[in-house]
Amino acid sequence: MLAEKDVFPEFDKDNQQLVDRVLIPELINVKTDDRKSGKNYNSSQTNLYENIVESQQDSICRFKQDFTVTFTNKAMRSLLVRDQQDIIGTKLLEMMPQFLSPGFVNFIQLDGENQPEVFRMRFDGPTESELWVEWSKDHIWSEKSDMGEIQIIGRDITYQKSLEDELRLSQERYYNMVDSRSELVICCSPSAVLTFVNRAFCCFFNKSQDEMMGTSFLDLIYEPDREAIRKLLMSMQKEEPEVLFPWRIIKPDGSIGWQEWKSRAIFDESGTMIELQAVGWDISERLEMERALKESEAYYRATFESTGTAMMMYKYDMNIILVNTEFEKLSGYKREEIEHKMKWTHFIDQRDLDMMISYHFQRQVDGRKVPDNYEFRLRDRWDNIKNVFLTVAVIHENQAVVVSFMDITERKKMEQALIQSERRYLSILNACPNELSISTIDEGRFIDVNQQMCKTMGRSHNEIIGYTSLELGIWVNPEDRAELVAMLKENGSVRNREYTLRSKTGREIIALVSAEIYEVEGKQCMILISNDISEKKQMERELARLDQLNLVGEMAASLGHEVRNPMTSVRGFLQLLKEFESFEFYSEYFNIMIEELDSANQIITEFLSMARHKNVDLELRNLNSIVMSVAPLVKADAVAQDKWLELQLNEVVEIMLDEKEIRQLICNLSRNGLESMDAGKKLLIKTYLKENKIILSIKDEGNGIPREVIDKIGVPFFTTKEKGTGLGLPVCYSIAARHKASIQLETSQAGTTFFVSFDLPDSEYC
Questions:
Q1: 461-512: per-residue pLDDT in tens?
Q2: What is the pTM (predicted TM-score) of this model?
Q3: What percent helix, strand, coil does the chain show, rounded to 5?
Q4: Among 9, 22, 141, 514, which one is least packed by beta carbons within 10 Å?
Q5: Cβ distance 274 to 266 under 8 Å?
Q6: Using the 8-state DSSP alphabet, how is residue 58 labeled?
Q7: Residue 399: what are its φ and ψ, rounded to 5°?
Q8: Does the pLDDT at position 721 exceed 70?
């Protein structure tokens, strides 16, 4: 078999295409022509063909019209991943799924419709990489001069395909980028025929991209300018490929506008222009503004003097070039002393100089970063300091700055006086120990409040100002405010009226309210001063309760001995008579009378326990121990009522207590709690330390205490029970008073909690 170099001595990879596309078909034609003439092939010719095709890098395959494969070269077998004996005689379309595509089948058929000259197909390469092959087709004539076999030659175009994809992606990126620009972008041939226009260009001329493509952009230029623009573009050289120029264009409405274009020419290696790329902007508005500015200069000079405001114009180098008469008055200098002789920095106080110089240079770079209006201190001819408010306007084209000055010295003095007045007002307002507020009369919308008002209401200043008292729910009874306003309008003032207010937390506050009419900015308002007397009222109630308890206790102490002695005698005779058989019929009556006497004696005992001067046996005791000792009794009562008891006893120190009285206090409060609950509910007894106090809390899960009853809690003989004496809670209050403790309660629909607060051991009775 001949080697490749023997057949084509100059063969190399660069000649591969020449071999594939010229020599192989030529050899094939020689063979077919010889067959037509009846000549026989010798083995050397066959070997020559096989050597050539076997050594090709392209995949070569021959098959019959029924697609039966008759020959493949090494490259084709590598593509099919099969040996020669497995391929010859096999149907081509059965070898790979890719061959079954309708496009490829149409491509290889002899009578296919619209058959392409080449066909591209993707394969999965041996290393699982993507492989692209471009197929070409030749018809091989048989000896009978009809189509005997079909030969396909496949070239690996994977690298070429990747380059094409990258080129396509690059072009898409370029077109997407320029298509999203607001500037006008075009590409055209050297003869000015448009090959690309972006969306902004189409929108400007109100035409679609299809309408613009293939037309000459010179047709869009105002006719008198076309020839000059054409010559300018054609004169561009490779050494200077860019040019910036304005031109007049014809707008869609037929009017004439101005555009400015930056054009760049693209040249090939020989220096021949192959494309023009250009980016343009519509400058019609800018030119119109420049024209209007020139026209306004005359008006500007006329108004510069008549504006009534001090004005100055200076250049970027800080030299003053123009001032008006008002600035002469402001500065104390004559115009001829200032213009072209002074810098504007001469008039600036040293404290503001650095700031204003910094603004001056920043304004030239980016005016958005510095203010156009601000205050500064101006120093006049006699070194007097004046507060001035200035306004700056920059004329970049002329590198000039125009400044107007407003003398606000007197206004600043008034502002300072107002600030001082407001400070005194706030000082007085917040120095008031009572709650003070200013609100509109009609709406009750708060204008101002002092710190004590915020503290009492449990709200910040911002949570009150701007809201009405009804929106904040400050009045427990909104009718009270209506009554107060009516009295205020009738009498002009209100003094020490008692109302109930509500804080943010819902705590009700009893307050003495006084009010005056006060005018704020022409609107009638109300100054309201309230004095929180809730603690005073509570103290008065506690004192009244204690006085009642003491009175009952003193009465019991005075009458107890005289009443108990006769009762004891009567009880003894009743027991004696009960033993006689003759009175056996009346035994039940005797028992009832004895029980009633015992009940009366118990009431007297409770009366005596409320006496202020009752002796108490105080010893160091642990409150938890006392609770634990009485807990079985309370638990027994709870179980009997189908309720349950929970203890939460935290560590507490020992204090001076009378154990019997504390046991009685716990029992009384616990029984009241159990009686207020339905079956299945829980009673919680808890001890803990809080704010230098030992707290005993007893909480039930009843329905709570009605509001109208709360003020009567602890009053002797007041009870809500059918068979109650009304002495249980008064006794508890008396026991607490003898221990220098206090009792508070919290109640809601979820239940009631009684808190008994004992002082720590450093209290005076320890």
A1: 888 888 988 888 888 888 888 888 888 888 888 888 888 888 888 888 888 8
A2: 0.32
A3: 45, 30, 25
A4: 9
A5: yes
A6: S
A7: 50, 50
A8: no
